[in-house]
């Protein structure tokens, strides 16, 4: 009875889980590639369900079937053996046909999942412990720029994501848009997708990469083409110059306290390459690779003691007086 109860719970849970959706779900397909992956998933699930039900019915039949007591239990019955052999042969052939059919379906889906459109927009994503460096590349260097942890893409435009790692193996995964692809040190992998609807879709590192692996998230925001062009034009611009006394002092402290040794703010003397580019940090929705919503309190807490929020990350604790912390936070909040 316990076995049947557990099986019933497992089946019910599976049915419930397949109805899950949201901004990080393979069933919330918002790109041609993820739609194909969803189709394959449902086909495999349906066939597996039919096979599982068939096996359970055969098992049930075997459990409840009453057999006559034989005088010679070890005596062979040729008719029964021939019948059993036929059943096994048919089952083996059916299994082979099913596996081959699923392989053909899976292989056919690769034409869509691994499509390579030469006219795609190229974005280079580099995985770090534990954040994502995002570089928008263009033919002219002055049109290229970098951001972090948030990717913007135009709806209906193929996107090629070039993937590299700066340290260990990571894995790029946005289930609503595409499948998983590893980031390997010294090797460039690529993944391509075409977002079909505007929206915000959550991504996650899908390869264990250290103690903060779970806090290595990112978002992909699909924008209408005109909105994307406006966003990209704005991102190409240098950081705005501080205009009020508190912002001016914050910018001076940002460089004086060593923040500019790790972070870049384009248009200023801050040109560090170890940490995320902060040129337009105030336009982002989160900080610390999706760990915290970006607001004044969280930004101040992160600068004051990042090790408390995300232990093991490479940003050191900043021992700043409260007035200096306020000034730096105020400056960063002007970097729209």
Account of the 3D structure:
It is elongated, with a radius of gyration of 28 Å. The chain has 3 domains: 2-65 and 78-113; 121-235, Cupredoxins -  blue copper proteins (Immunoglobulin-like); 245-332, Cupredoxins -  blue copper proteins (Immunoglobulin-like), CATH 2.60.40.420. Helices cover 40% and strands 18% of the residues. The protein is built from 8 helices and 12 strands.
Set out the fold topology.
Elements: H1 2-17, H2 32-64, H3 78-113, E1 121-128, E2 131-136, E3 145-148, E4 150-154, E5 159-165, E6 170-173, E7 181-183, E8 189-193, E9 199-205, E10 217-223, H4 225-236, H5 245-256, E11 286-287, E12 292-293, H6 296-304, H7 306-309, H8 322-332
Parallel strand pairs: 1-5, 4-10
Antiparallel strand pairs: 1-2, 2-3, 5-8, 6-7, 6-9, 9-10, 11-12
Helix pairs in contact: 2-3, 5-8, 6-8
- CATH topology type of the largest domain: Immunoglobulin-like
* Poorly predicted tracts of residues: none
Indicate the mean pLDDT.
Answer: 86
Task: Please give the alpha-carbon distance between the first and last residues.
Answer: 62 Å
Q: What portion of residues is helical?
A: 25-40%
Q: Kindly state the number of beta strands.
A: 12
Approximate strand percentage: 15-25%
DSSP helical segment count? 8
Sequence of secondary-structure elements? HHHEEEEEEEEEEHHEEHHH
- The class by helix and strand makeup works out as alpha+beta
The top level CATH class name of the largest domain: Mainly Beta
Shape: elongated
Question: What kind of sheet is the major sheet?
Answer: 5 strands, mixed
CATH superfamily of the largest domain: Cupredoxins -  blue copper proteins
């Amino acid at each position: 009875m316990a076995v049947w109860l557990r099986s019933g719970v497992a089946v019910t849970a599976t049915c419930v889980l397949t109805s899950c959706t949201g901004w990080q779900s393979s069933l919330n397909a918002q790109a041609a590639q993820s739609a194909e992956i969803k189709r394959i998933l449902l086909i495999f699930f349906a066939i597996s369900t039919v096979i599982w039900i068939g096996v359970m019915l055969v098992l049930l039949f075997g459990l409840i079937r009453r057999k006559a007591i034989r005088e010679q239990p070890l005596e062979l019955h040729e008719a029964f053996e021939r019948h059993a052999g036929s059943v096994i042969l048919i089952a083996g052939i059916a299994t082979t046909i099913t596996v081959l059919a699923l392989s053909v379906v899976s292989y056919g889906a690769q034409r869509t999942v691994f499509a390579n459109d030469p006219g795609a927009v190229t974005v280079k994503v580099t995985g770090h412990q534990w954040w994502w460096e995002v570089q928008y590349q263009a033919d002219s260097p002055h049109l290229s720029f970098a951001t972090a942890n948030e990717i913007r893409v135009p709806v209906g435009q193929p996107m090629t994501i070039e993937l590299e790692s700066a340290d260990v193996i990571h894995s790029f995964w946005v289930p609503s848009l595409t499948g998983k692809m590893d980031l390997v040190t010294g090797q460039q992998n690529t993944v391509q997708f075409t977002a079909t609807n505007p929206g915000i879709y959550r991504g996650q590192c899908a390869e264990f990469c250290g103690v903060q692996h779970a806090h290595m998230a990112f978002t992909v925001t699909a924008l209408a083409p005109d909105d994307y062009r406006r966003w990209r034009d704005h991102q190409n611009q240098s950081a705005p110059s501080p205009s009020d006394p508190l912002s001016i002092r914050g910018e001076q402290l940002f460089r004086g306290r060593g923040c500019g040794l790790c972070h870049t703010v384009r248009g200023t003397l801050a040109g560090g390459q170890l940490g995320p580019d902060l040129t337009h940090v105030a336009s982002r929705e989160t900080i610390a690779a999706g760990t915290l919503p970006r607001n004044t309190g969280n930004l101040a807490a992160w600068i004051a003691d990042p090790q408390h929020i995300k232990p093991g990350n490479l940003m050191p604790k900043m021992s700043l007086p409260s007035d200096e912390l306020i000034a730096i936070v105020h400056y960063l909040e002007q970097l729209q």
